[in-house]
Amino acid sequence: MRHLQIMCFSQMQFKYFKINNHNTKQNDVIIIILAIYVRLRGPCEVSREPKFWREQVKMKYVLLIASFVVVTSAHDDHEHDHSHTEHNDGLLRAIVKLQEPLGDKVHGKVTFTEQPDGKVHIEGVIVGMPPGQYGFHIYEKGDITEGCSSNGGHFNPENKEHGHPNDENRHAGDLGNVVFDENHVSKVDFWDNVIKLSGSHSIIGRAIVLHSMADDYGQTEHPDSKKTGNAGHHVACGVIGYL
Ligand SMILES: [Cu+2]
Ligand SMILES: [Zn+2]
């Protein structure tokens, strides 16, 4: 004897169907039709054997209640904080337009997207520098009223030394170097684990600076190496804001 068993929840109502049928091919067709039918009506389960269905019912209720709790708490989280913009996918995004204080040769646009795991994806295009590597750092202040030189020092909420982006000992603002190609274009596309778009490591409202020289990652004997990476002057900058 083969059985068909359908379990269905619809508006907290449990429905149970049992069909005795000796023809297994017919059963297969019925399973498919019923599965499609009950799928449209709520979370259902179709099986061939009527075993332990009471246990399955209990489990279904546990799962239903658990999912209700998850949905409710997720809703609470969302209601919790409207101070920054979340997009349809729930991710925080930010943007900066880089410009020269007195000129328009070097300019660009960079976006920041914070992933659920906390990593920030930095993407964009900057143009106007000769081929090579140039320091790319986030500065403490968003003050660019005096060009790109009034924005304080490297963003450093943990009072560390200047370093490579992968170093434990680095300023939060140490994003390393960006690379310009022979067409004087830099396609920016990398990830960072330290900067954030909210909280104590938030880069929102701070300035980003493109330097005139490569960041030495704090690894040379130059007196500025452990402070700024000896990356030269500030060529272009912009203030990061929520997108
Ligand atoms: Cu710098
Ligand atoms: Zn630094």
The CATH homologous superfamily of the largest domain is termed Superoxide dismutase, copper/zinc binding domain
Number of strand elements: 12
Task: List the quaternary state of the chains.
Answer: single chain
Assign the structural class, choosing from mainly alpha, mainly beta, alpha/beta, alpha+beta, or little secondary structure: alpha+beta
Report the β-strand fraction as a percent range.
Answer: 25-35%
Distance between the termini: 63 Å
User: What is the CATH first-level class name of the largest domain?
Assistant: Mainly Beta
Counting structural domains, the number is: 2
CATH fold topology of the largest domain? Immunoglobulin-like
Largest sheet: 5 strands, antiparallel
Bound molecules: copper (II) ion, zinc ion
Could you report the average pLDDT, rounded to the nearest whole number?
Answer: 80
Q: State the shape.
A: globular
Radius of gyration (Å): 29 Å
User: Architecture of the largest domain, CATH level 2?
Assistant: Sandwich
Helix share, percent: 10-25%
**Strands ordered across the widest β-sheet:** 9-6-5-4-12
Provide the succession of SSEs: EEHEHEEEEEEEHEE
Catalytic activity: 2 superoxide + 2 H(+) = H2O2 + O2
Domain Superoxide dismutase copper/zinc binding: 106-240
EC number: 1.15.1.1
GO molecular function, one term: superoxide dismutase activity
